[in-house]
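Run log, item B.
One chain of 40 residues. Sequence copied directly from the ordering sheet:
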Amino acid sequence: MERLIIPLKDLPLRNDFMLGQVMRNPRICKLFLEALLGLV
């Protein structure tokens, strides 16, 4: 099975890995959730 390597800048947030990375960083997570909930 061949692995596909995708640059981080090309990964959408619907990608499990990318969403996990966003949620691991408290500062980015807060900004993301505020934007998602329309609090900004």
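Observations after the first pass:
- The mean pLDDT is 85.
- DSSP finds two helices and no strands in the chain.
Flagged for discussion on Thursday.
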